[in-house]
Design brief:
By secondary structure, this protein is an alpha+beta fold. The chain has helices spanning 48-54, 71-80, and strands at 8-16, 30-38, 83-89, 110-116. Helices cover 15% and strands 27% of the residues.
């Protein structure tokens, strides 16, 4: 499926063919092979469109600048780890009174932390 802004590399090969043991004068068909690939301008193994979506530079194979880690290595590692969200309360017994005028006796907060596993 084509995505907006995605560019492709197209290659085609044209070959004449005929079955074995047949007369070449009989005339046979032409075989076309068409190859369609996502364009990868920097040759790092990640298509330009995917790099743009991830916020990487499609013209630089090492957008992160980490020596020895090209964009494919960094993005593959990021996809392999799953995000974990933890929700906790600082004081589990804190409640809000039923009316908005009465201030709470005990207060607490809900914390959300995100980490990669």
């Amino acid at each position: 499926m084509q995505q907006a802004g995605q560019r492709y590399l197209h290659r085609s090969i044209r070959r004449r063919w005929r079955p074995e043991n047949t007369d070449p004068a009989e005339g046979h068909g032409t075989f076309y092979r068409v190859i369609v690939l996502d364009l990868d301008s920097d040759g790092d193994g990640v298509g330009d469109w995917a790099e743009k979506i991830a916020g990487y530079n499609p013209n630089n194979a090492n957008t992160s600048g980490v020596p020895g880690e090209n964009d494919l290595t960094v993005l593959s590692s990021a996809v392999a780890t799953s995000g974990v969200v933890t929700v906790s309360a600082t004081k589990y017994s804190a409640t809000q009174p039923s009316d908005v005028v009465t201030p709470p006796v005990e207060t607490g907060a809900i914390l959300r932390t995100t980490a990669c596993a």
